[in-house]
Write a structure and sequence with these properties.
Low-confidence stretches: none
Strand order of the largest sheet: 5-9-8-7-6
Bound molecules: coenzyme A
Mean pLDDT: 96
CATH superfamily of the largest domain: 4'-phosphopantetheinyl transferase domain
Number of strands: 9
Largest sheet: 5 strands, antiparallel
Distance between the termini: 26 Å
Strand content: 25-35%
Structural class: alpha+beta
Length: about 200
């Protein structure tokens, strides 16, 4: 793998972390012991990771995985019979005006201001958009301003997002749906988690 060593370490730790999450699930829910080497992680053309291996023949479920990292922090999660996307962002990250204008609609900027959280709410929104884009499996392939935050509950950190524009053309079953994304603070970061049940969108 090319690139700086910190990136290689992030890449490895993300895989170690997601293998552990899946091994723990297989042990706790299926009483099956699998080694980390039994769970190869394959990356598709859009960058999305997938867990492979013989364990798949021993469960009736489909399992989706997601990985996120920032400097010094790695997170991974799995979802059973659904799609999952997680994202981590440093709360203190500076959002330039140009960036904000390109990723947030004026309604979202208004919603963040009304929430009383200001910048922290915008970080939740950005993190939520990336988590949703990962759950969809595309990453930010189309305009992030078309992954629209419609509501925020400051008490629980829950956001409601809706697809618009090219996202809707690509994911027609999600037309007219709002999708919940949970956001929570963790070690000076925001962690966003989006799960899309297989009833709404088939597993990847
Ligand atoms: C993919 C994207 C959402 C990642 O977000 P980020 O905040 O930059 O970085 P994070 O650390 O949170 O996430 C990186 C992880 O997301 C996962 N990921 C990458 N693409 C993904 C996708 N299409 N769907 C789901 N997960 C994806 C990977 O596991 C990756 O880590 P890894 O390469 O070590 O396995 C974002 O970079 C993006 O969409 N970029 C635009 C599209 C792009 O450049 N894609 C690269 C294709 S190779």
């Amino acid at each position: 793998m090319r690139g700086v060593s910190s990136r290689r370490i992030e890449w490895l730790l993300g895989r170690a972390c997601v293998k552990d999450a899946l091994r723990r699930y297989l042990m706790e829910q299926h009483q099956q012991h699998w080694a980390a080497t039994d769970i190869p992680i394959w990356t598709d053309d859009s960058g999305k990771p997938h867990a492979l291996g013989a364990w798949q023949d021993r469960t009736r479920e489909t399992v989706d995985i997601s990985i996120a990292h920032t400097t010094g922090l790695v997170a991974a999660a799995i979802a059973v019979n659904g799609r999952i996307g997680i994202d981590l962002e440093r709360l203190g990250r500076d959002l330039s005006d140009d960036f904000s204008r390109s990723v947030f609609t004026s309604e979202e900027q208004e919603l963040a201001a009304q929430s009383g959280e200001g910048h922290a709410a915008l970080m939740r929104f950005w993190c939520g958009k990336e988590a949703l884009a990962k759950a969809l499996g595309t990453g930010i392939r189309y305009s992030p301003s078309d992954l629209r935050v419609r509501a925020i509950d400051i008490g629980t950190g829950r956001l409601e997002l809706e697809l618009a524009g090219q996202w809707l053309d690509a994911f027609r079953p999600l037309r007219g749906r709002t999708l919940p994304v949970n956001t929570s603070p963790i070690e000076d970061h925001i962690l966003a988690t989006c799960v899309i049940p297989s009833a709404l969108l088939p597993p990847p």
